[in-house]
Amino acid sequence: MKQLTPDELKKWIDSGRDFLLIDIREGWERQEFNIGGIHIPIGELFARTSEIPANKDVVLYCEKGIRSTIAIQRLEASGFENLINLSGGMRAWKNSLL
């Protein structure tokens, strides 16, 4: 599974790279803090796979990187090959800002 550090993701965002960012956390988590992208809670993710493009990089994130790792493993088993996990999730992102 591909991983991206918070610093690498910041560079992608700052450079205007063409990719999709998906927040798979629950709504209340997203309201507290998010870095953008589309919101597809993990409970809805597998019913909404049509929203995940196959022709560009897709970065999934959650709070600690655990749920997104599991989600990516399941999606890869369904044939997705362009998924990247934000290593450490929002916790690592916030810590990288300090």
List keywords for this structure.
98 residues; alpha/beta; Oxidized Rhodanese, domain 1; five-stranded parallel beta sheet; globular
Give the helices and strands, then pairings.
Elements lengths: L1 E3 L1 H10 L3 E5 L3 H6 L5 E2 L2 H4 L11 E5 L4 H12 L5 E4 L2 H9 L1
Parallel strand pairs: 1-5, 2-3, 2-4, 4-5
Question: How does this structure look, described?
Answer:
The protein has 98 residues and is α/β, with parallel strands linked by helices. The protein has a single domain (2-97), classed as Rhodanese-like domain (Oxidized Rhodanese, domain 1), CATH 3.40.250. It contains five helices and five strands, in the order E-H-E-H-E-H-E-H-E-H. The protein has helices spanning 6-15, 27-32, 42-45, 66-77, 89-97; strands at 2-4, 19-23, 38-39, 57-61, 83-86. Strands 1-5-4-2-3 form a five-stranded parallel sheet. Helix 2 links the parallel strand 2 and strand 3 (38-39). The longest helix is centred in the C-terminal third of the chain and has 12 residues, at 66-77. It starts with a strand and ends with a helix.
